[in-house]
Design a protein that fits this description.
By secondary structure, the chain is mostly helical. It has helices at residues 12-35, 40-55, 67-92, 101-122, 130-153, 165-179, 190-230. The chain has one domain (12-158, 189-235): Arp2/3 complex 21 kDa subunit ARPC3 (Orthogonal Bundle). It contains 7 helices and no strands. Helix 2 (40-55) packs across helix 3 (67-92) and helix 5 packs antiparallel against helix 7 (190-230).
Length: 237
């Protein structure tokens, strides 16, 4: 999951808060990286992998990212730097605005951190099979990040009316009807438009997120099964 919003849409307080929190976490984890510097090569490979996967179109308004699997392998500290680097590069190519890099970093990192702690701690006492545990951890992590995404989308005054398709099309239709002397229609209120946009987003994106989550679960199960057989030390916290 990834926030595909151009610059100028989100209010300053929201995207700047995302940057502030992300940069604070990056600074807080910098000392941890010195202790776990042996994983720098895996972090570089993970950055390249996530960057390529997120750049591949699936024909749907959503894509894979595999950051939850990355979190299990390299841990939450390195995953944060991977998420920041990937979002910064993608924003440079127009894959979302530069102002949402902070929020997107937090969104991806939440998936990685949740998958890591679920895999190594919470689910470890309940599920002994590492591959199955990885699949379960990835699925729950993606569900948690989707809830976070909906929370961000539901924040009051997150977007100005008329900057998304539903309100914009209404305004365009009115102008078109005025030009052709058609009957006047009542435009939707800002509150109704925002509420409809939010619930439409949840209804349309929910099934897509579920399908993508299943794909990522399948990849995670196969990857962890392979890693556990050839290089099991990578699955140590």
């Amino acid at each position: 999951m990834h926030i595909h919003i151009p610059d100028g849409v989100l209010p300053f307080w929201l995207w700047s808060s995302g940057f502030l929190i992300a940069l604070t976490l990056l600074g807080a984890f910098s000392s941890t990286l010195k202790v776990r510097s042996s994983k720098i090569a895996f972090a570089a490979l993970a950055t390249a992998l996530v960057l390529v996967v997120m750049s591949v179109p699936l024909g749907l308004p959503i894509h894979l990212n595999l950051i939850a699997l990355v979190g299990i392998i390299i841990g939450p500290a390195w995953s944060l730097y991977v998420a920041f680097a990937v979002n910064l590069i993608l924003a440079g190519f127009g894959h979302g605005g530069m102002t949402v890099v902070g929020l997107n970093t937090l969104l991806l990192w939440l998936q990685a951190a949740a998958a890591y702690f679920l895999f190594y701690y919470l689910f470890r006492i309940m599920v002994h099979n590492k591959a199955f545990r990885a699949g379960l951890a990835v699925f729950v992590a993606l569900a948690v990040s989707f809830v976070f995404l909906v929370f961000v989308a539901s924040l009051p005054h997150q977007v100005e009316p008329g900057q998304f398709s539903i309100q914009h099309h209404h305004e365009h239709d009115h102008e078109h009807e005025y030009d052709h002397d058609h009957a006047e229609e009542t435009e939707p209120t800002e509150e109704a438009s925002h509420e409809f946009n939010l619930w439409t987003f949840v209804a349309l994106s929910g099934p897509l997120v579920f399908v993508v989550a299943l794909i990522e679960v399948f990849i995670a199960v196969g990857s962890v099964k392979f890693i556990d057989r050839v290089k099991p030390e990578l699955l140590n916290p």
